[in-house]
Specification:
The chain is 53% helix and 3% strand. It has six helices and two strands, in the order αααααββα. A hairpin with a 5-residue loop joins strand 1 and strand 2. Helix 3 runs parallel beside helix 5 and helix 3 runs antiparallel to helix 6. The chain starts with 28 loop residues before the first helix and ends in a 5-residue tail after the last helix.
Length: 186
């Protein structure tokens, strides 16, 4: 095995050659932001790889509803809220993994059902693709948009917030994955 000689690799660490993240040399502010955002998106996906629906829905410490599947649903919801509802102004589309009766539906509805798992990952990937497509046409990060709450903010601020969201939740994902099977790293 190629990783037998990697310092610190003990079989529980993620294999370095399986790391799809890029450490390029982006040119420009938007390229740098997009690389960080992309790498955090990939990190969350890597934390969820090769797990059954039961393990994906495994909760953290009670009474918390935090799970890897919940994080995927939550990030689909976050991507949708910021890129569709805020940056593009599509406030009329239904919110993902949310209801007026359950603001935490993204986590509360994360159950060990293969259809729920498939729906979560499909929604998350679709939101990432839609966000990236929209970002392809952006050049002015200082443009001001209105949030669904009517607050003014810049495209730049939302993109940096997205990096912060992923960074925080990838930390949660790291702890959850380590509790499931001991895998660390990434």
């Amino acid at each position: 095995m190629a990783n037998e000689h990697v310092v610190g690799y003990d079989g529980m660490w993620a294999k370095p050659e399986d790391d799809a993240r890029e450490a390029g040399n982006p040119v420009g502010e938007l390229a740098t932001i997009r690389e960080y955002l992309s790498n955090y998106r990939i990190t969350l996906g890597m934390k969820c790889e090769d797990l059954s629906p039961v393990l994906l829905a495994a909760r953290s410490v009670p009474p918390s509803t935090l799970s890897l599947l919940g994080l995927v649903r939550h990030m689909a919801r976050v991507e949708h809220n910021w890129f569709q509802r805020s940056l593009q102004g599509h406030r009329d589309v239904p919110r993902l993994f949310w209801s007026p009766d359950d603001n935490d539906l993204d986590f509360n509805g994360a159950v060990a059902d293969p259809a729920v798992v498939e729906e979560a990952f499909a929604a998350w990937r679709a939101q990432i693709a839609a966000a990236d497509e929209w970002l392809d046409g952006q050049s002015d990060l200082g443009s001001i948009v209105l949030t669904p709450r009517g607050e003014q903010t810049s495209v730049r601020d939302i993109l940096i917030h997205m990096i912060e969201e992923y960074a925080r939740h990838c930390g949660h994902a790291d702890l959850l994955r380590e509790c499931i099977d001991g895998r660390t790293g990434q």
